[in-house]
Amino acid sequence: MLLFPAMVSAGRKSACLTCHPSHHTGRGSCTGCHRGNDRSERKNIAHHGLIGGRYAHFTIPGSKVVEEGKKLIGAGGCRRCHTTGDRGNRLAADLDKLFPGASPEDVFKAIKNPVLYMPDFHFVDTEIVSLVNAIASGARQETDRQREIVQVVHFIDDGLARENSFVRLCGSCHKLLSHRYGGLGSGHMGPSLSGLFSEFYPATFAGKTRWREDNLKRWLKNPRKVRPNALMPPVAVTAAELEQLTDAMVVPYQEKNSR
Ligand code: HEC
Ligand code: HEC
Ligand code: HEC
Ligand code: HEC
Predict the structure, then answer these.
(1) Measured in angstroms, how far is the CA atom of residue 110 from the centroid of ligand 1?
(2) 57: which of 11, 65, 215, 221 fits an S-S bond (Cβ 3.0–4.6 Å)?
(3) Residue 109 CA: which ligand is closest?
(4) Is residue 27 in contact with ligand 2, taking CB distance under 6 Å?
């Protein structure tokens, strides 16, 4: 029987409205912002894959929550390891590609309980919610650029990595996520040096100068000459060791990123 075909036509009323009032009207459908299934009046089906209210702010242009998250991305230096909003290094996951594969809760947890080579920023929950919204907003605005296929290889445990002079000379105090050798070092007394030579590494050296081989050399010779309060002791490195450890700091796609 052909009963009420209009019920399933484009003009059909969203089943979300059985239980919820309408809001943000004129900005699209409920599922456009929250996903879920608006053909079912059963909550567990309707809510399948739902984006909750706190993670939906990225859908609102000019959202304060997104702005807050973007500030934290800048302050945290996330881009020295990740790409987000089409900018940043690719030493770790491209955050523009997380959605829709991951749920906002997964992303929240990844920031709250970071893996070994991701720093623990000790963010409070509201800050993490802002970050998740900012990441989602960055992914949304991303143009369909040609994406290179990047192999993110971490935790390689071969001789090359173990014998790298970074591990021997720096690894007791620092960690380094390297493109070539994976994660190197295990110390946490000094900061993670991932992406050190890239524009996305937070500027700390003598003001705003970017880290390069020459000022790194000066720093290693005597950190106190560069920063009077430095805690790092001088580290003697041979030219060959320096070459090997700066080689581990090479960041792929640097040319593209520093345009
Ligand atoms: C059968 C009733 C029912 C239907 C149908 C329903 N919801 Fe809900 N929804 C609820 C109830 C009850 C809550 C309160 C929290 C809970 O119990 O999950 C809720 C909570 C929510 C929340 C807040 C969750 C959060 O964590 O912020 C959102 C967003 C939401 N619903 C969106 C939708 C959308 C979009 C649809 C349609 C695709 C929909 N709901 C369909 C009953 C329903
Ligand atoms: C343009 C995007 C957008 C659309 C369209 C939209 N929402 Fe939301 N929704 C949000 C945002 C953002 C929030 C977080 C609170 C706020 O800003 O309103 C939210 C929050 C919610 C909440 C949680 C409210 C609370 O007090 O915790 C529910 C429930 C909800 N939306 C249901 C719906 C339903 C049902 C529809 C369709 C009628 C809908 N939304 C359409 C963006 C949207
Ligand atoms: C020193 C490098 C580094 C920095 C800085 C860093 N991360 Fe990560 N992050 C990682 C690594 C390593 C992983 C594990 C996944 C991988 O290998 O890409 C990861 C994983 C993640 C994931 C989960 C990705 C997934 O595939 O599920 C999210 C989300 C994330 N980071 C967000 C952030 C945010 C937000 C910041 C800034 C506040 C940040 N990260 C800063 C290294 C870093
Ligand atoms: C005994 C521990 C220790 C060793 C070994 C060590 N560092 Fe450090 N390093 C630190 C500490 C602590 C800091 C934090 C800044 C300070 O000194 O107050 C630091 C800071 C740095 C900085 C500045 C980072 C910034 O954001 O300002 C660089 C670059 C650096 N170390 C490179 C190296 C390299 C390369 C090696 C190996 C050749 C190395 N360090 C070995 C403890 C160490």
Answers:
(1) 25
(2) 65
(3) 3
(4) yes
